[in-house]
């Protein structure tokens, strides 16, 4: 299978050409458990991180949703089969280093391992972080990395969420998932929209986040967002154009051509097309048509909140 096209810097969480050391994850103390100690202390870094997409991997199957996933030979992806994602829990993957011997079913007295949460940007999905998370798990085998599909995105799009669709409500979703999985994240990494979600998580929660928690915000600022300048594909315009397109299309090429015709870059067009999957009408195995993996109406409101939110 040919690798997916590289996503545009302004929209995607799958960033390029990173060195693993740039996150500088602290080494865990053997047997230590992180607890909420200080009411508010955040090591806040605004940083532009670039990463590559190495797909030297093998395929695993996710028990809850039977979707094919990828994992390095010495890195495993853990799933929580008792979590009903259709009961309001976000879709997620837990990528663990090969020295992690833990899951949420264990006795609560057993400390959870050091955990980092990776949050994608608008119109993205948890898969944007996949290859990078596996590289991190390979480099830091005592750590685990939680990848989340935010509300209205990816496999979480089928989970009906109450409004308002805002940065704050999206952050609360992730906090609820962290509580259900019995995790105490030490690091939050968010790209663009996901960066503000990470900051909002810290603003809202005394627990279950460790204090201090390290927050990495990539390609975003805490304040209000200025519309894209010349030569940039402004996400708001892209979202509105996608909302005007048919709910189902005959091919990914059709979407790419339509976006390029509207003066969006080829890179953006190809990246957006990766969010299409074959439709599966009730009673049929598959369809020749494609539909979006996200809720564009909800995403439009989320991006407006992203523009207006000042943290």
Automatic annotation (TrEMBL):
It comes from Urochloa decumbens. This is AB hydrolase-1 domain-containing protein. It comes from the Eukaryota. Keywords: Hydrolase. The keyword Hydrolase applies. The lineage of its organism: Eukaryota, Viridiplantae, Streptophyta, Embryophyta, Tracheophyta. PANTHER family: 2-SUCCINYL-6-HYDROXY-2,4-CYCLOHEXADIENE-1-CARBOXYLATE SYNTHASE, ALPHA_BETA-HYDROLASES SUPERFAMILY PROTEIN. Transmembrane segments: none annotated. The keyword Ligase does not apply. GO terms for molecular function: hydrolase activity. Residues 117-251 form the AB hydrolase-1 domain. Belongs to the peptidase S33 family. SUPFAM superfamilies: alpha/beta-Hydrolases. InterPro entries: AB_hydrolase_1, AB_hydrolase_fold, Serine_prot/Carboxylest_S33.
């Amino acid at each position: 299978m040919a690798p997916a096209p590289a996503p545009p810097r302004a929209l995607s969480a799958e960033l390029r050409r990173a060195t693993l050391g740039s996150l500088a994850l602290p080494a865990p103390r053997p047997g230590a458990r992180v607890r909420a100690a200080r009411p508010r202390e955040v090591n806040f870094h605004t940083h532009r991180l670039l990463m590559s997409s190495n797909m030297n991997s093998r395929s695993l199957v996710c028990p809850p949703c039977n979707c094919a996933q990828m994992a390095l030979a010495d890195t495993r992806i853990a799933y929580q089969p008792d979590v009903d994602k259709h009961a309001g829990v976000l879709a997620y993957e837990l990528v663990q280093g090969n020295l992690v011997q833990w899951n949420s079913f264990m006795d609560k007295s057993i400390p959870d391992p050091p955990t980092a949460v990776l949050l994608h940007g608008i119109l993205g999905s948890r898969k944007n972080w996949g290859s990078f998370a596996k590289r991190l798990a390979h480099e830091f085998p005592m750590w685990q990395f939680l990848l989340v599909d935010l509300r209205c995105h990816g496999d979480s799009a089928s989970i009906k969420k109450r409004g308002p669709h805002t940065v704050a409500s999206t952050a609360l979703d992730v906090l609820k998932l962290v509580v259900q999985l019995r995790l105490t994240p030490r690091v939050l990494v968010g790209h663009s929209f996901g960066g503000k979600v990470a900051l909002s998580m810290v603003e809202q929660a005394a627990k279950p986040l460790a204090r201090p928690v390290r927050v990495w915000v990539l390609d975003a600022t805490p304040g209000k967002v200025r519309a894209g300048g010349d030569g940039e594909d402004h996400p708001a315009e892209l979202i509105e154009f996608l909302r005007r397109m048919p709910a189902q299309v005959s091919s990914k090429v059709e979407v790419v051509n339509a976006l390029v015709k509207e003066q969006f870059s080829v890179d953006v067009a190809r990246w957006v097309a990766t969010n299409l999957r074959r439709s599966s009408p009730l009673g049929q195995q598959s369809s020749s048509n494609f539909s979006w993996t996200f809720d564009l109406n909800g995403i439009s409101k989320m991006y407006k909140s992203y523009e207006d939110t000042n943290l």
